[in-house]
Amino acid sequence: MKAVILAGGKGSRLAPYTKVIPKPLMPIGDMPILEVLLHQIKHAGVDEIILTVGHMAALLRAFFQDGKQLGTRIRYSYEKFPLGTVGPLTLIDGLDETFLVMNGDVLTDLDFADLVAFHRQEQALVTIAMYHRPVKIDLGVIQLSGKHNVVGYIEKPTYDFQVSMGIYVFEPAALKYIPENTYYDFPTLILSLLEKGEKVAGYPFQGYWQDLGRADDYEQAIQDFESMRNIFLKGEDNELAHPAI
Question: SS3 letters for the chain?
Fold first, then answer.
């Protein structure tokens, strides 16, 4: 099985760190976040990984090379210009069976094999791993009827959402909906699939998930990795080989 990892972004929200290092190489404990992810998907049965790269691609290739150090196979797909979150998939050859797509900056203990099994059971074209996230509004929320009539007032409410984890399962047939050589994002693809009557499934996940998009999330992820290392690495030997740069 193949997995495509999106690793070409600039990681602007983690500046200034990402001015000199690509976000997937940001360290979590003694290894980059992307290395943790590579071990996890290898454990789930993925035997070929395609990294879509652009920003600081040379550093990513120098670190991970062809994947032999990690016991897997890695190849690279280069973006000459930004193609969004799903546009890069049109550059990759060989995506002719069910495959995973994910961001390269996610820390989670999700069971990827279970996600794929769910996707196949649902017979979906695309499955989105989703996470329950309450969002607290630290202000009084005014409810209106018309332009000026107040009909309600809620003090500092909390709203519940199912949010995307940045981890997906695709069927090859989904690729025909993505235009080539065009900037194209995942939300646009999903809305297009729904408009055309294609099935998109949501996989509910209740374990650990942290996106490393913001500095405070990154700091929290570092602490969590240290306390849950064996869980994240699925019991693998912690003496993991790092390739020489």
Answer: CEEEEECCCCCHHHCCHHHCCCHHHCEECCEEHHHHHHHHHHHCCCCEEEEEECCCHHHHHHHHCCCHHHCCCEEEEECCCCCCCCHHHHHCCCCCCCEEEEECCEEECCCHHHHHHHHHHHCCCEEEEEEEEEEECCCEEEEEECCCEEEEEEECCEEEEEEEEEEEEECHHHHHHCCCCCCCCHHHHHHHHHHCCCCEEEEEECCCEEECCCHHHHHHHHHHHHHCHHHHCCCCCCCCCCCCC
* pLDDT tens readout for residues 105-160: 899 999 999 999 999 999 999 999 999 999 999 999 999 998 889 999 999 999 99
The pTM for the full model equals 0.87
Give me the active site residues, please: 156
Measured from the Cβ of residue 127, the count of other Cβ atoms closer than 10 Å reads 25
Q: What is the distance between the alpha carbons of residues 175 and 3, in angstroms, rounded to a whole number?
A: 14
- Quick count: other Cβ atoms within 10 Å of Cβ 212? 24
Q: Which residues contact 170 (CB under 8 A, 6 or more apart)?
A: 89, 95, 98, 99, 100, 101, 125, 126
pLDDT tens digits along 121-136: 999 999 999 999 999 9
Instruction: Report how far residue 222's alpha carbon sits from residue 27's, in angstroms, rounded to the nearest whole number.
Output: 8
